[in-house]
Amino acid sequence: MGARMIDAVSGHSGIEAPAAGLDTRSDAGLLELITTEDPVREEALFAAARQVRARSYGQDVYFRGLIEFTNHCKNNCYYCGIRGGNGQVERYRLSLEEILGCCRLGDLLGYRTFVLQGGEDPWFTDDRIVEIVAGIRREYPGHAITLSIGERSRESYERFFRAGANRYLLRHETANDDHYRRLHPESMSLSERKQCLFNLREIGYQVGAGFMVGTPFQTPENLLEDLRFLQELKPQMVGIGPFIPQAATPLGAYPGGGLRQTLRMVALTRLLLPQALIPATTALGTISPTGREKGLMAGANVVMPNLSPKDVRKLYALYDNKICTGDEAAECRLCMEGRIRGFGFVPNMARGDYAGGAPVPGG
Ligand code: SAM
C-alpha cells in the first residue's frame, strides 16, 4: 500500500478507495504506474492527481504569456526542429521593441507572467538579455518574468536574476546519461544541464525542469529516473510533453510519444511534487485535440498561450503540426478560457507563484 499516497491526499474529503492502492513510493510501484495500460488504474491515478492539485491550487489554471523571441540555436539536439543544423528553418529574432510590444499586448489581455523562450542564440548576449529583462521589469514591476533560454554560466544567471527575472525553465530532457547521449551531440552533457538547474535554484529562481515522454530509446526505467531526479531537485515547475517527430531532424522518422503515457507522467509528477506548477503543454494539445484539457484532468494547472507576433509563430517549429500557430493572442486566450471552464476549471490570470513558498537564495 502506498503510504506516501495516503499522506498526500489525507486532507481531502471523499478520497476514493482505488487511490489508496497506488504505490508511489517504491520503484516497483512507480514502474507499474508508469507502464499500466489498465484504464481503471489510470483513472484512479488521474483522480488522485486531481485531488492533490486541488489541495494546493483549487480548480485554478494559471495563464502564462509565451513569447518565442528567437528560433536561432547553436545547439544540435537530435529531436528539435530549430536545431542549428536544420538548414530548412527560416530564422528570426524579435527586437527589444517587438518583445516589449508582446508584453504590452499581453498585459492588456490580463497576463501577469511573461515567458521568454528561445533557442540558444549567441546573438542574445548577457548584456542584451539583461537589457530585455530590465526593460520589461521597468514597465511591469509586479509581473513575473520567466526565462527559458538554455544553458548559461552561473554568473549570467545571476545577472538576469538581478535584472528582474524571477523564474527559469530548463527541462533536463532525460535524467539518464546514456539516454541523454543518444538524444544530444557530444558537445552537450546531462551533468552540465543538471548543474545549471542546481545553480538556478541556489540563485533563488523558481525553477522549472522537465522531460519529453516517448523519445526514441526511452525505457520505463528512464522515466522512473526522471521522477527520482525531480524528487531530488524539487523544482517549482515541471514541463512534461510528448516527443513529436520533426521530419528534418535526425530523429524525425521515429514514432512520437503517446498521450496516455504522457498523462500518467503528469499525474505521477503531481503526486510526487504536490505543489508544483505543471503546464498542460502545447505538445499535448498537438497530439490530441483535447490533450491540454486531459493534461489538466491528470493534474496539470498551467497553460501557456502564445503571445508571439502571429507572423513568426509557425517559424518556431520544434516539431511538426504544432497548434496555435495562426491564432491571434486574444482569440487564443478566450478560446482556451472557454474550453477550460467547460472542464470545470477556473482560469486565473494572476502571477500564480509557487504555492510552496518563495525559494531561498543560496538554499
Ligand atoms: N533553448 C531552450 C532550452 O534548451 O531549454 C528553450 C527552447 S527548447 C526548443 C524548449 C523545449 O522544447 C525543450 O526543452 C524540449 O523538451 C522541447 N522540444 C524540442 N523538440 C521537441 C520535439 N521534437 N518534441 C517535443 N518537444 C520538443
Number of strands: 9
Shape: globular
Computed Rg: 19 Å
Uncertain residue segments? 1-18
* Average pLDDT taken over every residue: 92
Class computed from helices, strands and strand pairing? alpha/beta
CATH superfamily: Aldolase class I
How many domains, in number, for the residues?
1
- Based on the coordinates given, report the CATH architecture: Alpha-Beta Barrel
CATH topology: TIM Barrel
| Relative helix content | 40-55%
Strand percent estimate:
5-15%
| Biggest pleated-sheet summary | 6 strands, parallel
Seen as an oligomer or otherwise, the chain set is single chain
Q: Which cofactor or ligand species appear?
A: S-adenosylmethionine
List keywords for this structure.
binds S-adenosylmethionine, 3-stranded parallel β-sheet, globular, disordered N terminus, 43% helix, TIM Barrel, alpha/beta, 6-stranded parallel β-sheet
